[in-house]
Amino acid sequence: MIVCMDPQINKYLLINEAKLGLTIAYPDSIKNIIGVNMAEVNGTVHKRVRGILLSLIGPAAHRDRLVLKMDKCMRSFLHNWAGKTIDIQQKARQMAFMGSLEQIVQDEPNSFYESFEDLFVKMFSGSMSPLINIPGTKYYQGLKARVKLNALLEELLAKRKASSVTHDDFLEQLIRNSDSNYNSSDEEIIEQIITILYAGYESVSSTAMMSVKYLHDNPRALQAIREEHFALQQNKRPEELTNWNDYKKMSFTRAVIFETLRLANVVNGLTRRTTSDLELNGIIIPKGWKIYLYKRETNLDPFFYQEPLTFNPWRWLEKGSESQNYNMLYGAGGRECPGKELSISRISLFLHHFVTKYRWEEVEGNKLQFYPRVIAPEGLHIRVSEY
Ligand code: HEM
User: What positions does the entry give for heme binding (predicted)?
Assistant: First the structure.
């Protein structure tokens, strides 16, 4: 494997991926558990699968429906936390998972969501574990959980197809799509559902958790984000849902999310494989080799970001900062994250309710780990009170 830490070359590789004959190359543990979808497809199949995904979560759907629905979901999720000590890592994971699942499948009994969550967490943990397929290992349990998830989803698909009742969710759209231009099989629909849940799980939850952490440690930023959200609430009745226009006004919140992603990077690098010998700056990378486009250090490079270790969301309010060549927080080129806006709006709405409803204090003794994943190994415990 070649490891490349030069942001210019990395950007060039991502933008010209198809032309250079690069294909996606996720680790086998992810590929085997998550399936053939985004983790394996290239070329025209990739374009088609990506098209289906964008029809669900792209800008149009986002503007017309998703923000309102997510706001409704966050209101009930963040209800009644005052007076409690909670693990914000666990809450953020629940928020990321249930937020996605309720968009995908609505109107099912609680038992469905609970069994789904239990299996999903096992599957996720298996995909992050060493590839040892013997009973008792996390990888083994992850594979088993994936088989059970398939069975659960196959049953649900059959039930939906046999029923004339309509539902306002992604599954309904995926079934309708399968009858029309996209022509997806049941297997593909299931892969799509798993992809949305998987890709938006740890990425969203760890960013939400870390933004709470950074806001706690930086009172001036906390004050600024509260002002932004109280100003939005001033023009609305309490029961009125936050809409797309409100979301577009959350510019400081967006900056907090970018700054959190920069400092606590959830995606260290991206992996590609060459399909023919590739010459880069006079060096030949042989056919079949992997290239690891390592981007973590770029985010902390003083050449690009002044005082790179300081949490300074204001830097993202400068014009053009998000579109700088060295910013690859959401990837670049034909595989740039299709869930980018969805993830930003989900975390923004979470923060909207969290900072306006509550104050919080960290409980002593929390530990954080930044590499290889951003996690609090024993949880991030906070004491919450009414604002
Ligand atoms: C803070 C949250 C997120 C971050 C930082 C993030 C980051 C990324 C990055 C860096 C890539 C590029 C991968 C590559 O080129 O190999 C990517 C791809 C992808 N992301 Fe996200 N993501 C986030 C949230 C989401 C969400 C919520 C969804 C789901 C709806 C999602 C769905 C995807 C998919 C399907 C791909 C593969 C795209 C393709 O291969 O065409 N992501 N993401």
Answer: 337
